[in-house]
Design brief:
The protein is α/β, with parallel strands linked by helices. 30% of the residues lie in helices and 23% in strands. It is built from twelve helices and 19 strands. The strands form six sheets. The protein has a five-stranded mixed β-sheet with strand order 8-9-10-13-14. It has a three-stranded mixed β-sheet with strand order 2-1-19. 51% of the residues are buried.
């Protein structure tokens, strides 16, 4: 199978035993957040970075203790930059925006970055660079440099890189490189693309779909069952992106049914996995406020093209596509205030590491209790600082290898 590591790469469900995953340990990019820019960079507050790193280390340890191989994105990036000159060119080209800083300064900056060691270049590509940190004196020849404040970014930081689910996800033995909807995250896909293209671990891996225009984000994509995919359409994934993904996976024989699920276009429900995730092969944890209103358009592969049906109730359409009588629902409780608070704190954003075993934030007491009452083992992690970017364990993980169900 694909990949030069010891684990065969490929994912065909949300709940098959997790073998290997990509995480990104938060780094200096989070230290770039200020009260002036945190909204623009999609964070609701300024995280205590040391504590966020401790919480993330705990998350990684919980996975490793359960036999999961944890690959850190910064390490993969530095290794790809070490072995490939093309990777360096690709990373630098994506980071240096001449529309923003001008051609002359862009040339100076690119020339400097080509001389930087791989680990340092990896850090710059993720944490960004300010005008004060420019090692070249272009003030006499660059109007751009003279007119910017020293703390302005000549390369923007990527604090949302923490959420590795969004810029790539796997369908079967292939990887999807996504197009992220908001400008603050656009360059994350270039980092992911670079790693998959040039790191030896991913040699021979084929792409399932590459979206260069219509946005698709991994947090909106749930692999309900082998051959059955749900795609949320809302703030981040567009109808055009969902349809293009569906047609692509049909062409590659990676799926036979795609459910397109409209969700509210608001911060609290930015992705489908903020309101619903799978915890067993036939069970989901779901925000109760949408349980009876969530709908789906069903796109099926046909001999003469595709058929589109709906919209129908999501739970019924999902069960039908999965070939099961009913999809079991575990909700976050009948108390609407508690349910809304825990949905905001990513109570529905669980990461299954095998059927019936999930990682969840410890703060969502009610949701976790209801999961356990339904027979689900909950591995609790701290998330007081990690959660300031609005993302839970599923958002922070990109599974690259799961056992087939």
């Amino acid at each position: 199978m694909n990949g030069s590591g010891s684990v065969s790469l490929g994912v065909d469900s949300e709940v098959g035993r997790l073998r290997s995953v990509i995480l990104h340990r938060p780094g200096d990019e989070l230290k770039r957040l200020t009260p002036r820019n945190n909204d623009q960079l999609l964070f609701d507050g300024l995280p205590w970075v040391d504590r966020a790193q401790d919480e993330h280390d705990q998350f990684a340890s919980v996975l490793r203790e359960r036999g999961v191989e944890v690959l850190l994105l910064a390490d993969l990036l530095a290794e790809a930059l070490t072995v490939s000159g093309a990777a360096r060119i690709q990373g630098i080209s994506a980071a240096v925006d001449t529309r923003k800083i001008g051609h002359a300064l862009g040339q100076h900056l690119s020339s400097y970055l080509r001389s930087v060691p791989p680990a340092e270049l990896s850090a710059i590509l993720t944490a960004g660079m300010t005008f004060d940190e420019l090692p070249i004196d272009a003030s006499s020849t660059s109007l751009v440099r003279r007119m910017h404040h020293g703390g302005d970014f000549v390369i923007d930081p990527l604090p949302n890189l923490l959420f590795t689910r969004d810029s790539s996800f796997w369908i079967g033995p292939r990887v999807v490189i996504t197009s992220l909807a908001l400008s603050a995250r656009a360059r994350e896909s270039s980092i992911t693309d670079l790693v998959y293209a040039h790191h030896p671990r991913f040699r021979g891996v084929r792409r399932a779909y590459e979206s260069h225009t219509a946005p698709v984000e991994g947090g909106d994509v749930l692999l309900l069952a082998p051959g059955v995919i749900a795609v949320g359409v809302g703030e981040r994934t567009s109808p055009a992106g969902a349809e293009a993904l569906a047609r692509s996976v049909f062409d590659d024989d990676l799926a036979h049914t795609v459910l397109v699920v409209p969700i509210e276009q608001r911060r609290a429900s930015m992705h489908l996995d903020t309101v619903c995730t799978m915890v067993e092969a036939d069970a989901v944890v779901m925000y109760p406020a949408i349980q009876n209103t969530l709908s789906a358009f069903t796109i099926r592969r046909e001999d003469d093209g595709v058929s589109i049906r709906g919209a129908d109730p999501f739970l019924e359409a999902a069960a039908d596509a999965m070939g099961i009588g009913k999809l079991r629902v575990i909700d976050t409780g009948l108390d609407t205030v508690t349910a809304e608070r825990e949905q905001w704190d990513d109570g529905n954003n669980t990461l299954a590491i095998e059927p019936g075993v999930v990682v969840a934030y410890e703060r969502n007491v009610e949701t976790n209790a209801r999961l356990e009452a339904s027979g689900i083992e909950v591995l609790r992690i701290a998330g007081s600082e990690l959660g300031s970017g609005r993302g839970g364990p599923r958002c922070m993980s990109c599974p690259i290898a799961r056992d087939p169900l």
